[in-house]
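ENTRY TYPE: paired fold submission
RECORD: A
CONTENT: sequence, then structure tokens
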Amino acid sequence: MYDLHIANKNYSSWSLRPWLLLRQLGLPFSEHMHPFGPGSNWQSFRTVSPTGKVPCLHADGEVVWDSLAIAEYLAERHPGVWPADAAARTWARCASAEMHSGFATLRVVCSMNCGVRIQLHEAERARIQADLNRLDELWCDGLARFGGPFLAGPDFTAVDAFFAPVAFRIQTYGLILSSQAMAYADHLLGLPATRQWNEEALKEPWREQEHEDWSLKHGRLLADLR
């Protein structure tokens, strides 16, 4: 049994990745929620994570921090984290690493907030276009190479978990990609586990003002579904 420490489902894109991976693989785990508070959460998160950040996985006396490290830890112990096919596995690792370290402008302009719908200002749409172009190219490349419906083939793997927060951003901010890429995002959002995350995010009683303000900094609020 794993213990996964996460932050608010409404805001925490990093937490979504290992949570969704564990759920999709059917691995048993206990979820430990640590809601964001005002200001720095470093000190409180340090009680479960050496970096003062979540997600963090506790397993068999080991503490595994960072979403990519968690994926690799699980891959050493369970099949299905990465594709079995060598070429697909290489591609999936490259794409996951690119997501882990890249798409900085998209992250800044379109912070994760499951419960709202926002119309971006035109200037902000222009700022993220290069990231959207690369995202579209990457998704379509994986789908074409490995036949879908997931990025690296017929089965959900870690690379899909790493891009799941982007699917939520597409939904929140009304982002437009090619038809193939949009169909993939819809497929991710339609998974039972992803729907569960979204439903639980909308039911959360917590509001963290810094996250709320940041979501509205770059666009106009259209709806609040919480």
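RECORD: B
CONTENT: sequence, then structure tokens
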Amino acid sequence: MAIKNCMAKGLGGDFFDFVELPDGCQVVFLGDVTGHGMQASIVMALLYGYLHRAIAGGCPPRETVAQVNDFLLSFARRSRHLDHLFSTTLFYSVIEPNSLVMHYVNAGQVAPLVHRQDRILRLPPTAQPLGFFASPEIEVRMFQFQPGDRLLLYTDGIIEAFNGRGQVFGHAAVERLLLSHRDGPQDLLDGLFGQLAAFGGLYPPEDDCTAIALDFSTPHQFS
């Protein structure tokens, strides 16, 4: 398991964590608050605390995501006259270590990638971004990991990075690296951010950049 993060303005809106539940299941989430800088970081801090409270209450993925949406809407209603944004994308998952089954909601987040042997599997959105609609459609999906799989989560600041020639880094560069990389998760993320630097993207970046990599070896074990 590895994480790498670079904020656009020192403070930012990307947020993530790993939380082990009492039954041994592992919660993994990654989100991207709308905007940058101080305001995004404040909303991110509110969300981070709220998610931990929901996780402690044992809410399953759909109910947790729905509660986050209601939480954001309540702030948006109170501050409408200030024109502040209270919205986010969120990938929220619960992984059962004995079976390597993951139940997840992808609320508008960049589709995570699974590297399995010589192919890439994508986990596309199953819900709308949160904080916009009072009754969003939220679908929970199941994914069965296999030994040898690698999961890569990342925010759109990576694929939407531009260089000085106006070229965008894009999805294909991430997928090529994931397919070709055979070292550990931290080496993968170091390589990804190294390629971003070689590509000529701005530093600090125009948008927050976060990536998470997890390896699945055998049932009962992922890292």
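NOTES ON RECORD B: The chain has a mean pLDDT of 90. The radius of gyration is 17 Å.
STATUS: closed
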